[in-house]
Design a protein that fits this description.
- The chain has about 140 residues and is α+β, with helices and mostly antiparallel strands.
- It has one domain: YjbQ-like (Jelly Rolls, Sandwich), CATH 2.60.120.
- Helix content is about 25%, strand content about 35%.
- A five-stranded antiparallel β-sheet has the order 1-8-3-5-6, with helices on one face. The protein has a three-stranded antiparallel β-sheet with strand order 2-7-4, with helices on both faces.
- It is elongated and about 50 Å long.
- This is Secondary thiamine-phosphate synthase enzyme YjbQ.
- It holds the Pfam family YjbQ.
- Belongs to the UPF0047 family.
- InterPro entries: UPF0047_YjbQ-like (IPR001602), YjbQ-like_sf (IPR035917).
């Protein structure tokens, strides 16, 4: 069985944010399946999705610090700066992490590890609302 829906996340500040609860709430609206896969596709090019530590918030602040150090704003050779100095760095960060996740479903729930959570990486200063397409397949 295939099921699909789109959710919209409210605008978040620049940084890394746990969105596991929002994904679980959307998953609960699907017809239940015992085993399957949930594909998440973030429909934007200046934000990202990743799976990582869900307990200690310093992991998320360290992620933001590392990415800002590795892909600095005001890099003189960037030409794609139409929407500000965070424009091209946001696209690079999005490509480094990616915009999709494929997650296992077991007994109708996300089968994540004990300390795993789903992050939205917001790489823009004013990113706005973000849309995620959820596609569930399974039995």
């Amino acid at each position: 069985m295939w099921q699909q829906q789109q959710i919209q996340l409210r605008a978040k500040a620049r940084g890394f944010h746990l969105i596991t609860a929002e994904i679980e709430a959307a998953l609960a609206q699907f017809s239940p399946i015992s085993i399957g896969l949930l594909h998440l596709q973030l429909q934007h090019t200046s934000a990202s999705l990743t799976l990582n530590e869900n307990a200690d918030p310093t992991v998320r602040t360290d992620f933001e610090a590392w990415f800002n150090h590795s892909v600095a704003e005001d890099t003189r050779y960037f030409r794609h700066t139409y929407e500000g100095t965070d424009d091209m760095p946001a696209h690079i960060k999005s490509s480094l992490l990616g915009t999709s996740l494929l997650l296992p479903i077991q007994d109708g729930q996300l089968a994540l590890g004990t300390w795993q959570g789903i992050y939205l990486g917001e790489h823009r200063n004013q990113g706005g609302n973000r849309r995620i397409l959820l596609t569930l397949q399974g039995d």
